[in-house]
Amino acid sequence: MKVTSMLTQNPLTPHAHDAPVSPLERLAPNKLILGLFLPMQEGAWSPSRAPRSTSWTFDYLAQCTRQAEDLGFDLAFGLAQWMGKGGYGGEMHFREHELDPIIVNTALAAMTKRIVLINTVHILYAWHPLHLAKFGAALDHISGGRWGVNVVTGYKPSEYRMFGLDMIEHDLRYDMADEFTTLLERLWAEDENLTFAGRWWKTENAFLAPRPGPRRPFLVNAASSGAGLAYAAKHSDLIFITSPGGAEPAKAYETLPPVNARIKDLAASLGRQVKTIINPHVICRPTEKEAQEAYRRILEHEDPVAADNFVQTFVGGDTKSWRGHSRAQWVIGGNVHLVGTPEQIVEGFVKLQAAGCDGVQVNFFDYLPDLAYFGEAVIPMMKQAGLRT
Question: Which residues pair with 90 in a beta bridge?
Answer without folding.
Answer: none
